[in-house]
């Protein structure tokens, strides 16, 4: 109980409240703006978190993480332009409702779905994280290596329609993660004689470049919107409509559970969670034909599914130290920079920090709902800000933030090069997330494999001597063979 009260007090401290409110507002803004999304907001703010206490820094970034999904529903409902990719499912029913003059009903369903999905996922996080942490307490280097391999395979399989591109980018990410002086051997790797590259390529510079600068360049080319019409009857949310969508409370809980479970898996992310939650709601509905024609239940299911992903993604991050997606990889950076290493002992070593995290997640969802409900129209009008101002601001803030981290112009050059590469990859439609996951998980695989081989005196057979590792590797094999079997059966028919 003392830990719970200590976490509660830390979460309601003035510095933490200011951080989560700022992060949430930034998240809503980048979520409302199609083409940006929470990743851009997080990577822009990331360099400024290094001088903050760990709980405050995490609250700031988690605010952007969750707020982005709240904001993404607004243009999806009003303009049929998803603010974040997962909100495209919300537009299936949200925009038809807007065309019928029921935008307030659609927005009420979307915001209630986001809030409900977030609360359900937090409850699951609080219950499931300690249980998984106890299991992970028996993990050694072989188990962590197997889990990391399983995670990277999940990333590849999640892009099975573009498998070649995903594998190529994962491999490129592995290579980029090796640049610099190898710690155990003190051997320079791919430094090309450059002193600046001996410390490796900074993760913040790479991610800021790939997503922040790359997305800003794409925004300059493509613009934000194709229409200027905003069909919104009042400046705030019509709270009388909320009662109409609460009749779908079963769908709300079910979609929140689905989103949380999908958030556990490395790779799939919020888009898959949103689609599956919507599809299950449609199948369970007594009137499935109304979906896609303006059913508030569809908006609620979609938003509950995608907003449950952040808390779900925290479970493997906190208990195993392995990020489930690129956004949680940034949170991993905040932990490690403060000398805190997520894993099975984190919940024992840092109970107050974890409790603070739980309370902050709860507050973030409530703050995001209130802020959007009260200032709905002002946030919706953000889409009319000229694209040039947004893009230039993102690039400028990114470069200033990168320089502030290590005071090295070399990192700014890395970010600009990564931004050019990110623009090209985004323009071609390649899965950029696969590249980031390769950069993040690459060192985990390398270091854990090195430790595993050391335990086995150089023999990889030690992997087959540990039951948990055998089970995880068997799942890896099934993960690879299942799509091949499906493809063979489809061809034979």
Would you write up a description of this structure?
This protein is an all-alpha fold and 493 residues long. The protein has one domain. The protein has helices at 2-11, 14-32, 38-45, 54-79, 88-99, 103-136, 141-158, 163-178, 203-222, 242-245, 249-264, 269-284, 296-307, 309-320, 326-337, 346-349, 351-374, 376-380, 387-406, 409-428, 432-455, 467-492; strands at 180-181, 188-189. The chain has a two-stranded antiparallel ribbon. Helix 2 (14-32) crosses helix 17 and helix 3 runs antiparallel to helix 4. The protein starts with a helix and ends with a helix. Helices cover 73% and strands 1% of the residues.
Topology, pairings included?
Elements: H1 2-11, H2 14-32, H3 38-45, H4 54-79, H5 88-99, H6 103-136, H7 141-158, H8 163-178, E1 180-181, E2 188-189, H9 203-222, H10 242-245, H11 249-264, H12 269-284, H13 296-307, H14 309-320, H15 326-337, H16 346-349, H17 351-374, H18 376-380, H19 387-406, H20 409-428, H21 432-455, H22 467-492
Antiparallel strand pairs: 1-2
Helix pairs in contact: 1-17, 2-3, 2-4, 2-17, 3-4, 3-9, 3-19, 4-5, 4-6, 4-15, 4-17, 5-6, 5-13, 6-11, 6-13, 6-14, 6-17, 7-8, 7-21, 7-22, 8-21, 9-19, 9-20, 9-21, 11-12, 11-13, 11-14, 12-13, 19-20
């Amino acid at each position: 109980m003392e830990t719970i009260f200590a976490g509660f007090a830390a979460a309601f401290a003035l510095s933490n409240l200011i951080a989560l409110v700022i992060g949430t507002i930034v998240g809503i803004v980048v979520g409302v703006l199609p083409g940006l999304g929470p990743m851009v907001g997080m990577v822009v703010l990331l360099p400024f978190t290094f001088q903050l206490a760990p709980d405050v820094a995490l609250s700031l970034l988690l605010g952007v993480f969750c707020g982005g999904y709240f904001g993404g529903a607004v243009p999806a409902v009003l303009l049929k332009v998803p603010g974040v990719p997962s909100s495209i499912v919300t537009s299936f029913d949200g925009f038809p409702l807007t065309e019928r003059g029921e935008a307030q009903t659609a927005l009420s369903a979307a915001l209630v779905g986001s809030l409900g999905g977030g609360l359900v996922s937090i409850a699951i996080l609080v219950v499931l994280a300690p249980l998984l942490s106890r299991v992970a307490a028996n993990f050694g280097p072989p188990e962590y290596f197997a889990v990391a391999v399983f995670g990277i395979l999940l990333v590849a399989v999640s892009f099975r329609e573009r498998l070649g591109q995903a594998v190529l980018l994962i491999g490129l990410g592995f290579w980029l993660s090796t640049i610099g002086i190898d710690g155990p051997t003190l051997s320079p790797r791919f430094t090309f004689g450059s002193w600046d590259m001996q410390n490796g390529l900074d993760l913040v510079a790479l991610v800021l470049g790939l997503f922040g600068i790359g997305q800003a360049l794409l925004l300059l080319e493509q613009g934000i919107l194709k229409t200027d019409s905003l069909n919104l009857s009042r400046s705030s949310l019509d709270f009388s409509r909320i009662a109409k969508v609460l009749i779908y409370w079963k769908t709300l809980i079910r979609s929140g559970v689905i989103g949380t479970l999908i958030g556990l898996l490395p790779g799939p992310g919020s888009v898959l969670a949103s689609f599956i939650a919507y599809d299950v709601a449609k199948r369970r509905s007594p009137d499935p034909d109304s979906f896609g024609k303006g059913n508030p239940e569809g908006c609620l299911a979609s938003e509950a599914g995608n907003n449950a992903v952040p808390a779900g993604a925290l479970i493997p991050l906190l208990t195993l130290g392995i990020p489930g997606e690129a956004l949680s990889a940034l949170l991993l950076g905040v932990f490690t920079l403060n000398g805190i290493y997520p894993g099975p002992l984190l919940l024992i070593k840092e109970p107050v920090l974890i409790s603070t995290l739980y309370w902050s997640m709860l507050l973030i969802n409530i703050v995001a709902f209130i802020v959007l409900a009260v200032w709905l129209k002002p946030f919706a009008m953000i889409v009319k800000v000229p694209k040039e101002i947004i893009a230039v601001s993102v690039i400028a803030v990114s470069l200033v933030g990168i320089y502030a981290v290590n005071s090295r112009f070399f990192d700014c050059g890395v970010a600009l090069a990564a931004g050019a590469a990110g623009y090209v990859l985004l323009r071609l439609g390649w899965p950029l997330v696969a590249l980031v996951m390769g950069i993040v998980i690459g060192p985990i695989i390398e270091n854990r494999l090195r430790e595993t081989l050391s335990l086995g005196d150089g023999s990889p057979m030690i992997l087959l001597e540990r039951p948990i590792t055998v089970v995880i590797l068997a799942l890896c094999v099934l993960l690879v063979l299942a799509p091949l079997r499906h493809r063979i059966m489809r061809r034979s028919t």
